[in-house]
Fold these 4 entries.
Entry 1:
Amino acid sequence: MGLTATIRTRDGWAVSHAVVTLADMTGSQVLRVEADIEGAVRDVNPLPPGAYTVIVTAVGYAPAAASAIVTASGRAEVGTVTLARQGGTELPPPGPWTVDPAHSTVGAVAQHLGISSVRGRFTDFAASIEVARDDVTKSRVEAVVRADSIDTGNATRDGHLKSADFLDVERFPQITYRSSGLTVAGSDRWTVHGELSLHGVVRPVDLDLAYLGTGSDPWGGTRAAFRATAQLRREDFAMNYNQVVQAGIAAIGTTLKVELDIQAVQGDSLPRV
């Protein structure tokens, strides 16, 4: 008897703080109940038979409405009600997430000789994400990259990039990024605002972030995937080296495109697998 319902996000996660209100055809409130930790509503009190409107609300989500018919037994089964993030924006469930470096890539692309691109990546890094519960724009990202882990597939080039001409890894062994906030850029897109410390210079850098969804992994964890990009000017970080091979053409372009493919595991540490 009573009302049963399940409240989920678009990714299928429980909305444990959802409030379900049942109103009759005159608009009068008949029942108000909160979902449990599994996002389930199981009210056992019998209801008067008839047609009702179910309204579901939760902090950070757009309200949703559904119809319900209470049978002669005093029971109504609403099924699953899906809530969308306020404004149509989506992020993973709130709380801490830890970036998995074994399944993530921190890469950069530079133009070479004005006609092609050279790609590189950093192989040693750590990062954490904190998804805010009530106001997702206050979510935070922190990352640390070892500068000497640069790998472009060529030892000679890597050695030059580690030298004082570029990263100067002896003086500046770490590259860090700390976010200061997020703004909505689309239904699954965000702009991450933060500060990048690179080559001894700290400058504001925005990341264009796409949230790709969440899912279970084979080790019993939950993972979220992101893709992010940014453009940096080398001279903004005091990396002014250049070799002009001919009039107007530099050996290495002055603009770098940063490309991040990220998997994060729910929790404040990585599981042992």
Entry 2:
Amino acid sequence: MLKNIWFGKLAALAAIVLVLVIGLGMIEAVVRDRQHYRHLTEQSVADSLAGAQTLIGPVIHSACVESWDVETGKGDERRMVEQRREFRLTAMPETLRLNTDAAMQERARGVHKVNAFSLQTRILAQWGPLTALQPQSSIQGSRMQCGAPILMLAVADARGIRTAQLEVNAQELALKPGTFHPTYARGLHASLPESVRGGAEGLQATLNLELVGTQQVSIVPLGGRTEVQMQSPWPHPSFSGRFLPTERTVRADGFEAQWRLSSLATTAAQDIAESKPVCTSTPGEDNLAYAGAANQPHGCVDSFSVAFIDPVNPYSLSDRATKYGVLFIALTFVAVGLFELMGNGPHAPPLRGSLPPEGAAFSSWGGPAMKTLRVHPVQYLLVGSALCSFFLLLVSLSEHLPFGAAYGIAAMACVLLLGYYATHMLGSVRRGLPFGAGIGVLYGMLYVLLQLEQTALAVGAVALFAVLATVMVLTRRVNWYGLTATRSPDRPTARTEAA
């Protein structure tokens, strides 16, 4: 009979664990839905404000047409036919310097927040003699026609341009929308006088630009020497792209970063002249000409980026926490089983021939009868449900409170509930308080694991080993066969053998 009871209880606990795992899966689905809503919010803000930005330029280009006559036919049918070749001349700056201040502007849709930025950028570009703008004939006797030189600055999303002011050789020039470039069409431009073409004195341009966007800004290093200095009060930058900063300082009140690049280290200038696509780490409609780096690893223009990330993303942290849910349930059920097991008196059988105290009952193996501390499967189910409710509380509260505060409130509520319930489930406050304290330690360990990145696996493995060692030490004297043994009718008891 006892054996059947234990097997029935184990089967019931297995069914309860399965139900709780299904419940955790539903909670994970809720977290994923909230993450999806957050992505939709980010896209909504980008559609209404501006998306991730990429700066290309300033660049001087000029569209040219070369035409020539070709004689076709024979005899009286001979005639001259004009053929033509269209091409574009491009002059990249010898020196390109950018000084950028990035101020953060938080935007929100409901409970979801998106990091937007406002760039105050001063760009200084200097060209040497603009011989690259002088067309070269490919056919002897051909005719050359070139449009006016155009100084352009291309951006990923032109809606983000707030103000712009351009000075060329200390003279202010009017800026107009568009770039007149077939590939990098979004941005602004200014027409230059024809006299700059092939000028020996070179050219210097200063552009003051205010640009807004969301999440990330990328820069294409076009100069023979490119120097970029960026500072921002945002304390969580993520540097990516083909080049990391030469120098960077990240503090609690912001960051400063500097890039110093030579054209010897990048083919960005040649790639832009060939109108290759610009690849960024955040693909979308707001990019200039996105091509996934995985698909075209060598076919994209070099760039470097700064993303203004939020490291305390409540949904990513909640998702990570939910993945520990099954382990939480398993450890808690083990703890309840230990209290039930250790609370049922001694489990090792006495020596053969020993006599019990007068009036004491005996188990089937000759030991004293177990006490009546038993935990019903329904109680296991309620404890597991309380553990599952923690993760749902966490994701819902973290939408309105800082993640640390939301975690503390959810954990405290569950610890108090489980501690109170355990005092009645386990029969005494002496057992309920250690059980509640153990649950509190589990929540504390989980919070530590969520904050760690590089050492989370090591800390989690050590903690799990410590729990396993504790369980083995506490149950080292348990007679596991005695828990499921059935009493045989013809087996003599210890009292009979003694007699």
Entry 3:
Amino acid sequence: MRTTTAWQGSGPGAALQRAAIERRDLRADDLAVRIDHCGVCHSDLHALSGAIGKPTEGMVAGHEFTGTVTAVGAAVTGFEPGDRVAVGTIVDSCGDCAMCAAGQENYCLRGATSTYGGKDRVDGSITLGGYSREYVLRAKFAYPLPAALDPAAAAPLMCAGITMWEPMRAAGIGAGSRVAIAGLGGLGHLGVKLAVALGAEVTVLSRTPDKAGDARALGAADLLVTTDDADLARATGRFDLILDAIPAPHDLAPLLRLLALDGTLSVVGYPREVQVQLMHLTYGRKNLSSSGTGGTKHTAELLGFAAEHGITADVEVLPSAKVDEALARLKQGDVRYRIVLDLSDLD
């Protein structure tokens, strides 16, 4: 076994503790990666608080990270020590089902192995995530990090970015599309950048007009105030796709009314439970969908697109010793737009 250092949970909501953890010895198709930067995601906050039902004792969160290859297994081709890589929310899948064959390993019919809190398919051990200095994973689920991308600002592409990218690709978003983004946070700000780069006309949906300047700075053409009935009435039937990145429970009906014929509302903020009346979908033949990060096909595509268009997250980089501060600020909504941990202080 290999030993590295991590920030580890000791119970729901408890402060994370610096601890030595074990990584497996490299299998033939494995990489060892020195983690340099790891994003702090809202789902990390949920997991560490016990909200998603996984044991928090011993948990190491973190599933969007970049780093450097330090060792490769005997059968690995395409990577060598010193290569920059990016890793996202899944680190294995069955490889045989229809989803895996389609490059949608995130929807593996036998269950994808998540980067933390999952079960290793070979030895049954529980995966420990990217709030650590080293990770060992199958080479198939590591991606070359393009030279054009800053490693700290690119880390959130591996969860927040791909979460917004897949539903845009599924909806065929391109020049002339009308896209709205609800929730201008870690996911939402990347959604604006990506949709604009695809050629869409982008509108930010916000409860207040306070974010109008930020929305336009990111490339949005407009901001719609969702608490203004007149604003909502003017936008009825306007959008082809609404990406709903709001993490708290909320009413979907006002958003559905904004969709054009055959438009799609994709709920990616995971507010746990939502209610919808069927008539809100029937009137206009509208679609309600969701999306869970991405598989190898679209993740590789996203990284190439981001490099071509100069797209990364707007980040604040903190030493990993401030991980509890980062989580507390995320809970309070005091992040603009993603905190990324620098893991070098774990050496």
Entry 4:
Amino acid sequence: MSEFDYATLRVERPRDGVVLITLARPQRMNAITFEMFDELHDVCGRLLRDREARVVVVTGEGRGFCAGLDLDDAVTLPDMSPHEMMLGQQYWAGAFVNFHELPQPVIAAVNGAAAGGGLGLALAADIRLASPAARFNAAFVKIGLSAGDVGVSWSLPRVVGLGHAAEIMLSGRFVDAAEAATIGLVNRVVPAESLLQESFELASQIASNTPFGVTLTKRVLNANVDAGSLSQAVEVENRGQTLATRGDDFREALAAFREKRPATFTAR
């Protein structure tokens, strides 16, 4: 059962602090529709306000992770005016920006093909685990569009480097799971039958740390990947550490470490 009444997504809580979002259009390899964009915006808004959600896992139902924009919706794009298309593009890409900017860490459990927007969604996550069936491509360039879409031109070079990103985006070729692990596109490849279990285990490890510490860590990573210098990066880190030491959870973490017991955090 989905926690919310969505047509294209299923939202569940498989463990304390862990939210699982499943793209639920298996008959279309979980291709994105305009309705799914609406629902992605909505679920991100809910997660932004959800104090119980510590880590988010996103995956696809069935054989695919996400096949990109559904071609039944894509055929309407040429009939839009330039203004309509620009406003739509901003809205659609904004769903991926929202995912990337969630306060919770996001793990993509890539169970199959991640093409076009599916690649963009996987890259919007902080961590990517893949099954051996996972495949990735910048499909946009294969259908007459630029491969720069939904943030891929920003995120892919940061994950795999400019050279690999150029080849993937200009050719549109598929990258299989083994190559994806070699170039750093995914953190690791795990057996298909244990993909979600390992994603949940990793999510639980993250959720065992202080809520504020995890949020600060995600923010400092995203901020400092583009820092102009070491001193600028350290300045951001220093402010985060100063804030973290003001909360009750820091005292509790120290006490639990000294007493060799699990910590109990209040997110205060």
